[in-house]
Amino acid sequence: MDGNAMDGVSDSFEVDVNLTPQGEPIPVRVRRYVARDMSRRDGIGLAAAAAQLACRAMEIVRGRLDADKLVRAATMQTVRKLGTMALLYRSHLQRHPELKRRTLSLPVEAKGVDAVVRSADHVEAWVRLNVGRTDYWSTVVFDYVGGRWLCTTLDLG
Fold first, then answer.
1. Per UniProt, what is one Pfam family of this protein (predicted)?
2. Rounded to an integer, what distance in angstroms lies between the CA atom of residue 124 and that of residue 151?
């Protein structure tokens, strides 16, 4: 627990986080309904993990990464949904080759994270992603299950 966190009081804070050594820092905002539920450090860590998972999810949907790469970090239901989304998106790209050329050649970049610590074992995050000049949003939900944080929802839109 933070030394300055008061029992039972909600708070929020913003920091800039580097996800990769060569990358630009991204703004991260974390809100805690009850400050004692999670330390600032853990909140920032989960927000950064949400950004990394969202980027991986976009790469999975674009067919550049296999959905099985998330098996340790996410529930099987979440992994299956991403695999299905990837199949649908690839089918769409087959019908639109110009979109395929433009989309698959560009990197995925996280541009910001807004996270809410709802309880000591549940965190929700919204990650803004960028592919070229197109913005996307990802919802990432973590639950503390079996002694570790597990992604239980990972959606892109």
1. DUF6459
2. 10
